[in-house]
Specification:
Blueprint (H helix, E strand, L loop, with lengths): L2 E5 L4 H12 L3 E5 L3 H6 L6 H10 L3 E4 L6 H11 L3 E4 L6 H4 L3 H22 L4 E5 L14 E3 L4 E3 L20 H21 L3 E6 L1 E3 L11 H11 L2 E5 L6 E6 H13 L5 E5 L6 E3 H12 L4 E5 L9 E2 L4 H6 L9 H17 L1
Parallel strand pairs: 1-2, 1-4, 2-3, 4-5, 5-8, 8-12, 9-11, 10-14, 11-15
Antiparallel strand pairs: 6-7, 11-13
Helix pairs in contact: 1-9, 4-6, 6-7, 8-10, 8-12, 10-12
Amino acid sequence: MKTVLVTGSSGLIGSAVAQFFDAKGWNVHGVDNNMRAEFFGPEGDTRWNLKRLSGELKHFTHHELDIRNRDAVLKTVADIKPDAIVHCAAQPSHDLAAKMPFQDFDVNAAGTFNLLEATRRVSTSIVFAHLSTNKVYGDAPNRIRLKELATRWDYDDPKYANGIGEDMTIDQSKHSLFGASKTAGDIFVQEYGRYFDMPTCCLRCGCLTGPQHSGVELHGFLSYLVKCNVEGRTYNIYGYKGKQVRDNIHSTDVADFISRFIEKPRIAEVYNLGGGRENSCSLLEAFAQVQEITGKAQKTTYVDQARSGDHICYISDLTKVKAHYPGFTLTKSLSTTIRETVDAWKHRLAH
């Protein structure tokens, strides 16, 4: 029986990966210390998801491990000797990073390095899939010529008709400290691949979402937006007239792609993995879709100051993803994802 080690296993993507590989009959070792609760308070707590995984999965083992603890990481990877590592653990908020820069760097950059070196010491044949972020591009995507439509901003340059590709520069732009620490980890994942001939990939994701997301204001755009509507909370819009665009990919589809990469790995690859144009929406468009499902008008306030380094329009170009893995396709539409998320929040808030 094959074995996968998943960091951040109680989070949105980590738990989806754990479920996906458990269903395939793999041994799943989950690493998580609920640091999200430290970052975001009680609303960010993921213990409920750990309890769910422990009750539902057949081949799951939890490890209460902080990836900043180098010796513990080295020992855990050496003891488990996994066939693959899926690294989802992170400090995920670019706003929060400026308030806790040491924690942000130590988790995102040093934690990733600890895992890479622990992997190399066990075997250079272990597949290492890393959840990076589109924030490695900083605000460079904002240099693309845009056009303002009724409910969204969109690219006004035919080069970006399908979205942003992996050739977008990661240099000389404002990233936020979060974007910078994730870029450091991203580069190390590539370097370990190239320098030591290890099968690694960086998944520079768009907005990750799904019903298991513990969305909060500083991270988890679509989940938090849905939660605000269901609870009757006011949602704060930060700049760009609420027309800023994100592409949204369901956690199940992310897990599926990771599985395909692990089955047919490559050396030091980089992929922009997101919902693409078909699953993109602006804030205004998201409000409309959620309101249609719940029947509740969304309360909003407008702050005429965009978040520093925030993307005006970000859509992932999936051309490379589909060229390398032609069997991969998005199985969850935006409307399906929103409906699942509405149902999940209603259930969780009722219990």
